[in-house]
């Protein structure tokens, strides 16, 4: 039996800004862009990896979310503590330069970590924490 990761979900606050970040800056492919009730779910993924995607989704689409939960989620997104994704590249310094040349918010410049990776971190337009690793 094989189990694969199909998709992970990250909230977005502005679908167009998220598209600019994931498609235009990171170079991800847009796999689907589905609208419903004034909301959009956009699946993106790295070229050459058609079975893996990130679904950029409205953070409050679940009708079971209470007003207190909406407020808490909004506060956590604003601080960048609600959602995280870790990506991997073979050229961390080149990717960092490309991201830094945009208006992406830098959290951490590339650094060699004691656990064997070189990594950096950014926030996407919704405040999600994006860590990027390069194996040492």
Could you write a compact summary of the structure shown?
By secondary structure, the protein is an alpha/beta fold. The chain has helices spanning 15-25, 67-79, 92-100, and strands spanning 7-11, 29-36, 39-45, 53-57, 84-88, 105-112, 117-123, 129-135.
Q: How are the strands ordered across the major sheet?
A: 1-4-3-2
Distance between the termini: 31 Å
Sheet having the most strands:
4 strands, mixed
Average pLDDT over all residues: 93
Instruction: Enumerate how many helices there are, as a single number.
Output: 3
User: Any idea what the radius of gyration is?
Assistant: 16 Å
SS-based class: alpha/beta
- Percentage of β-strand residues: 35-45%
Residues in helices, as a percent range: 10-25%
| Strand elements, count | 8
Report on this model:
The relative contact order is 0.19. It is built from 3 helices and 8 strands, in the order βαβββαβαβββ. A hairpin with a 4-residue loop joins strand 6 (105-112) and strand 7. The termini are far apart. It is of the alpha/beta class.
Highlighted features:
single chain, 136 residues, alpha/beta, 4-stranded mixed β-sheet, 8 strands, globular, Glyas_Fos-R_dOase_dom, Glyas_Bleomycin-R_OHBP_Dase, Glyoxalase superfamily protein PhnB, VOC_core
């Amino acid at each position: 039996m094989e189990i694969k990761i199909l998709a992970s979900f990250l909230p977005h606050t502005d679908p167009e800004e998220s598209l600019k970040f994931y498609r235009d800056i990171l170079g991800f492919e847009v796999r689907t862009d589905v609208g419903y009730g004034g909301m959009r779910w956009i699946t993106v993924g790295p070229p050459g990896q058609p079975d893996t995607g990130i679904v950029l989704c409205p953070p409050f689409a679940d009708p079971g979310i209470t007003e207190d939960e909406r407020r808490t989620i909004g506060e956590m997104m604003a601080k960048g503590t609600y959602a995280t994704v870790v990506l991997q590249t073979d050229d961390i310094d080149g990717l960092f330069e490309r991201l830094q040349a945009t208006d992406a918010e830098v959290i951490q410049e590339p650094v060699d970590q004691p656990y064997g990776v070189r990594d950096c971190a950014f926030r996407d337009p919704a405040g999600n924490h994006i860590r990027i690793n390069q194996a040492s």
